[in-house]
Amino acid sequence: MPNRTRFLGKTFAAAGTVAALALATAVPAAAAAPSTVEQDVAQLYQYVSDLYNGLPADALRGVDRLIESPIPQIGPRSRAAQDPIPGCTEGSLLTYANKLAAQLTPLENQAMSALSGLSQLYVQGVATDKAPQVFGTDGQYTARATDTIRKLRDFWDIESWNIQLVAWKGTDLGSQAKMAQTFSLGLAPAKVKNAATLATKVLYEVPALQGGRHPLLSLNAFSAPADSLGGKRVALGDGLLDTVDFLGFDDVSVEAVVGHEYGHQVDFAHENHPRNESSEMGPDAYGGYFVAHPKGFGWDSRTQQEVTYLDASVGDCYHSHGTPDQRKAAGAWGEKQATSQGNPNRIIPSATMIRKFQEEYPKLMPPAAATVAAARG
Ligand SMILES: [Zn+2]
């Protein structure tokens, strides 16, 4: 429900602005009454909901997000409500993201929900790496991202030429042309132009969104399989990179996150879709192997340790993405596979790596969590 006082305040303010504008411009007699910010946000939310409802059935299937965003997601729920694992403390990145979300008013939260959902669909269904991609709010991560995806394509023995790496940028929401392409993915053609115009309008009339630079708009990364909308791709959010920098993991952010998301591509290529925490811990392990391996980044033990702390920072306390301790253990296990092998330059075939991790995974599960998971079957 919109806050009444706020609603009226905005209405009066908007009326004053429009009266001033009416003197300066010829407003057609039949023009509709000016909308309030609240009406704009509600209408945009409806457009984005309609867009999601109009997508092809498999558009979002198998798309794996790095974190469950604290902003309510438009579209199908990826996780049923459940109680947190007792005694577990969520990772520092999730704590920070929740804190950012808690600072939003209900109106800002609704605008954020609509626009982050819209920008995710842009990255998933419209963006392409055939155009040069700019990573980081000011392009400061572009060189590292380009280097990382090139190394990953050479490293793992899966079909890789068609795995795109695309930048997820909140600032793309400011482009009406890009938003029109995005709405065209599922909204009735007659509504596309108005919806795209409204997206840009809301981006700038809700100051908290910072014109697309609020980190929550793109505080995530994801990996998408071949048969989803837009095909095989890894998306890396500017908001995620800014946040990881803030938390102190900047020197490993791009390599660790893209290494993890590419790990999902390794699983996709082998149709390995575990229905437990190993679906996230596996990519942590493959990513750890990659960054520690001389043919990956060959990072030293201090830097390897930093990667495991970043893995832990996105751990949650539900039986979905792995707890911080589980994820740290999975990343460290992967790193150890690289540093302890007889021939340091040999790269374990991806199918073998998957099998080895699936054998190891039960030992990385704390007993209490293993019991619950077993009971769930
Ligand atoms: Zn993941």
TrEMBL record:
Keyword Transcription listed: no
Cofactor binding summary note: Binds 1 zinc ion per subunit.
Keywords, comma-separated and alphabetical: Hydrolase, Metal-binding, Metalloprotease, Protease, Signal, Zinc
Keyword Hydrolase set for record: yes
Signal peptide limits: 1-31
Pfam families: Peptidase_M48
Ranges for domain Peptidase M48: 204-266
Any one GO molecular function term: metal ion binding
A biological process term (GO) from this entry: proteolysis
InterPro entries: Peptidase_M48, TAT_signal
Organism superkingdom: Bacteria
Region (Disordered): 321-344
Essential cofactor(s): Zn(2+)
Record-given protein name: Peptidase M48 domain-containing protein
